[in-house]
Design a protein that fits this description.
Elements: H1 2-13, H2 19-44, E1 48-50, H3 51-58, H4 62-70, E2 77-79, E3 82-86, H5 87-99
Antiparallel strand pairs: 1-3, 2-3
């Protein structure tokens, strides 16, 4: 009985990562990255993007996006309570960052 309890305690405290675990993680990671690339590709076909799409495209936080709006770096339009950004303006912003 003592051996069984020790074995159970050992197995619950020991968390081994197997090759199969890593393979499953890799597949899931690549699947998620593929979805992200599809979403970004779809954004390029749009003329206007919402805040969440812009944050993903630029890889920035909500606060950084707000700062870009406040200081006039990234123009936006507000329709009701939704903010929209021109894809052309985002492309210009990315182009100016690449030259820095």
């Amino acid at each position: 009985m003592q051996d069984h309890r020790l074995k159970h305690e050992f197995m619950t405290t020991l968390n081994l990562i197997t090759k199969e675990d890593l393979d499953a993680f890799k597949r899931e990671l690549f699947e998620q990255l593929g979805k992200l690339n599809i979403n970004i590709g779809q954004s390029q076909n749009k003329k206007w993007l919402r805040s969440a799409e812009v944050r993903i495209l630029l890889n920035i936080s909500p606060g950084t996006l707000q700062n870009l709006r406040i200081n006039g770096t990234l123009p936006f339009r507000k329709v009701g309570s939704i903010l929209y950004y021109s894809y052309a303006d985002i492309s210009k912003l990315l182009g100016s960052e690449e030259r820095l």
